[in-house]
Amino acid sequence: MVEKINTITDVVCPFCGTLCDDLEVDVDIKENKVIEVRNGCQIGAKKYFASNPSDHRYEKPLIKDNGSFKEVSWDEALNKAADILVKAKRPLLYGFSSTECEAQGKGV
């Protein structure tokens, strides 16, 4: 039985170009697992369940340094990603199939 559930609302689903932005995801706090996804299609819901803890999943940000990966803070990883995008001559952002979603505006 699930003792503590955290419901996260207005979640953006990144699994296709539609970028649905009204998903609700219930997370079992004790087990750190997704237990329910609402307002998403079958593909999106399945992908969220696939994000449950696994030995085959990276859970901390990594940056390649001298040919090998090193663990860094989220702030350092996000700053590095932002630097790469700012310096790119032709940055490519995936998942935008229309111009009517707030997520696309943030990306642009």
From TrEMBL:
Pfam families: Molybdopterin. GO terms for molecular function: oxidoreductase activity. Residues 57-87 form the Molybdopterin oxidoreductase domain. This is Molybdopterin oxidoreductase domain-containing protein.
